[in-house]
Amino acid sequence: MNDLFKQAANDLVAAKNVVALTGAGFSVESGIPPFRGKGGLWEKFNPMEYAHIDAFMKNPTKVWNVLLKGLKEIIEKAQPNDAHKGLARLEELGILKTIITQNIDGLHQKAGNTDIIEFHGNFAWHRCLDCDKRCETERIDLTVIPPRCECGGIYRPEFVFFGETIPPQDLRRSELVASQCDIMLVVGTSAVVQPAAFMPLIAKGAGAKIIEINPEKTPLTASISDYLLMGKAGEVINGIMAEIEKLLSH
Ligand code: OAD
User: Fold this and answer.
1) 1-32+80-119+167-250 CATH, one of 3.40.50.2000, 3.40.50.1220, 3.40.50.1010, 2.130.10.10
2) Which of the residues 7, 91, 149, 181 has an alpha carbon 20 to 30 A from that of 226?
3) 76-81: long-range contacts (C-beta < 8 A, 24 or more apart)?
């Protein structure tokens, strides 16, 4: 692994335009469960029953009780882990330009990154289904479920449910930055949910190197990724950052 830390550090320091694509695995070390795999949310819940927009519209009380209430509690407590801190440092060093994240937890912002495309929206804000008024999630009162706006309408999170489209401006900008980067770091994503999983293919097609960080292989590993650093995001990014700091101090 040490050789791979060095290789990734060399590649990143030599690059001019690095973009990261992050997924749920990135926040596992912050205490937020992933969707798929061991301990994943979809082991307990059927996504179509709780995370589809039709399910929410049909029975918001059920979705709030089973999924959103718990999510609010977990996300409110979560803090950036070493992986988030590493990407913030990479931006500070001028190496990392943009993060495309599928995560809705706001932890990249909290860690200090400034150019983040929230591909699946975020959980920081909610919107009234009736009057469209926005409310910060931390100000939403959960004593009555589902929570309601002053007008009586039900609040929904500003994230993208299954069955909804990615905001076109986020999709367009992700495709653009993917096509312009010379390295894409793909971290903590199972790379099975489209169109996010297509971004590494765009980058690769435009000549970028794809560096994957994940404790498991993904559909990208064999054919798209140049190499995989197998391990937890925080540990691997710490290893790479230590090598980068050594290179830059010489
Ligand atoms: P998944 O839950 O599908 O995949 C999590 C990935 O993280 C897996 O490949 C794990 O091997 C990896 N992983 C687990 N622990 C890790 C760790 N400590 N460090 C690094 N990697 C780790 O998450 P996503 O790919 O983000 O969409 O899922 C994509 C989308 O599916 C989500 O954004 C969400 C979901 O349904 C919507 O809600 C629309």
Assistant:
1) 3.40.50.1220
2) 91
3) 76/137, 76/138, 77/31, 78/27, 78/30, 78/31, 78/32, 78/105, 78/107, 79/30, 79/107, 79/110, 80/30, 80/107, 80/108, 80/110, 80/111, 81/27, 81/29, 81/30, 81/107, 81/233, 81/234
